[in-house]
């Protein structure tokens, strides 16, 4: 069964995304901070990670970078964020 990790510190966003995606064919796992997102990604090897940029303790950009540096998991990562200003865009990840 495909696994999707949703990492966002706002519970209502996580709930909305979970309700949108979850059905009997997809397993949805949640994380509310960067450290938990890293741990769950490394333990569960999700197929897709929906990752907020602004997470407590470890930012979503840092989570993405660490996962890529460590060589795993090979999940697709989609940055899911309300940050929409030009200053919020990272030059490289």
Which CATH class is shown?
Alpha Beta
What is the overall number of helices?
3
CATH topology: Rossmann fold
Largest sheet entry: 4 strands, parallel
Specify the helix fraction band. Answer: 25-40%
Radius of gyration: 13 Å
Protein model, in words:
The protein has 93 residues and is of the alpha/beta class. The chain has a single domain, classed as Rossmann fold, CATH 3.40.50.2300. The chain is built from 3 helices and 4 strands; from the N terminus they run E-H-E-H-E-H-E. The chain has a 4-stranded parallel sheet with strand order 2-1-3-4, sandwiched between helices. Helix 2 packs parallel to helix 3 (60-69). The chain is globular and about 40 Å long. The model has no long low-confidence stretch (mean pLDDT 87).
Write the layout of secondary structure elements.
Elements: E1 3-7, H1 11-21, E2 27-31, H2 34-44, E3 48-51, H3 60-69, E4 76-79
Parallel strand pairs: 1-2, 1-3, 3-4
Write a concise synopsis of the structure shown.
The protein has three helices and four strands. It is α/β, with parallel strands linked by helices and 93 residues long. It has a four-stranded parallel β-sheet, with helices on both faces.
